[in-house]
Amino acid sequence: MRYGFTTGSCAAAAAKAAAYMLLTGRAKTTITIETPKGIPYTAQILDIRRSERAVSCAVEKDGGDDPDITTGAWIYAEVSYEGDTGDRGINEKALLETEQEKPEKKQRIRIKGGTGVGRVTRVGLDQPVGNAAINHVPREMIRKEVMEVCRITDYTGGLEIEISVPEGERLSEHTFNPKLGVVGGISILGTSGVVEPMSSQAILDTIRIELRQRREEGFDYVAVSLGNYGLDFMQRTYGYDLDRSVKCSNFIGETIDMAVEMGFCKMLMTGHIGKLIKVAGGIMNTHSREADCRMELLAAFCVRQQINQNQICRVLECVSTEEALPILQESGKMQTVMDYIVERICYYMENRSGGRLKIDCILYANGYGELARSKEAEGWFTLLGQEQVQ
Do the Cβ atoms of 296 and 252 come closer than 8 Å? Predict the structure, then answer.
């Protein structure tokens, strides 16, 4: 199946091409960037508009064999010299999100969202309230690619980059953005830069291959995470090599079944509370189309810990588990709630295995780091650390 490329990759490619045309004065009809996954992306550059002080161009989103609502959308980047944005009838102060520069860097690369890029209005998302919904990995990609152009052209001044999606507001009506509190457009997303085909069977086949390879290498234990964020958390927090982990996506139940079938004895599951809390309710496929009772489950666990009714009602009104965590902190009972969630996660996963797999769990949140771990998870740090140095 054919890879596609994320809106973040499209934005980075468009920004790189616009920066190149602005700083060299030459036309550019194709551009290549390196995605975080290491797969190069060569994009066709569309709708080029050039002036002496700014260049705008677009890249068409290609979802590969996993098209979504944004496939076919044109992702624009306008790159201008610092201070040349002018008055476009919008609140520039509100739009401008300056990324902090290290003192030794001379370039000032400022990234903001324009027409059709949503704006964050609620806490618990990748960006703070008030920022354009351009997630941190796409921001890093844009900065990296534009800085490369600055380097090869010996440009040391400031640049302003505005990402826009003319159809973004209309497209956002068919996404979860309105529910999540992102208004006015789509989000610029992507952790790996590529859209991996999401055929359920293809994902399950990949999980099976990765588990089989690990079993044939002689291991009877396996560290599993739901996705890229979980793998990144394991590497950043525990120093565990991502290549040694298995990514199970939403297919927790099937992954457990395969692990039992292949003779694994132990599993460590690491995941974000927004996904794994569903497992605490016995849900073994965490895709939102299968089930989305995150806040109801979290509220139920709050009831069990006798958190007051007003706070429980506020939890139910949240659109994400991350948004609810400050309420739990305020209650003074967050740790007991998190510990119980982990207990239930392990209970249901071990129940799925028929008692043939000892399963531990580490639960985390983006803004909080580790929230809780099962009682025997500590032993995994030694086990994984020993494997790491082999």
Answer: no
